[in-house]
Amino acid sequence: MCMTLAERKSYLMVCMADYLMHRWGKTLQEFLHLDSLYGILDYLILGYEPFHLTGDEGIAEEVEEFIRVQGGTI
Fold it and tell me: What is the reported pLDDT for 4?
C-alpha cells in the first residue's frame, strides 16, 4: 500500500523532528519552541520536493541555515 503525499510529508516531519531533536540535544518541548519561533515544520513541508531526495544530514544543514537566515540560533 502506497502512502499519499500528505502521509509522506507527515512522515518526513516526524522523522526529521526526531533527528533534529537528537542532533541538537533538545527535548520535544524545546524543539516545539524553536518551531514556534522559526517555522521549522512548515519549512519541511514547503521544501518536501527537494528534501525527500536528500539525506537527514543534508536536510538538517538546510534547516540550520534557514534558522540562521532568520537571525536565530539553536
Answer: 95
Q: How many whole angstroms separate alpha carbon 25 and alpha carbon 17?
A: 12
> What is the distance, to the nearest Å, from the Cα of residue 51 to the centroid of all Cα atoms in its chain?
10
C-alpha separations of 9 from 45, 49, 51 in Å = 6, 9, 10
Q: Where are the domains of the chain?
A: 5-69
Name the residue among 46, 71, 66, 55 with its Cα closest to residue 16.
Answer: 55
- Please tell me the total number of residues recorded for the chain in this structure: 74
Taking CA atoms, 16 is separated from 1, 13, 21, 31, in Å, by 23, 5, 8, 11
**pTM more than 0.70:** yes
pLDDT tens figures, 20-70: 999 999 999 999 999 999 999 999 999 988 888 899 999 999 999 999 999
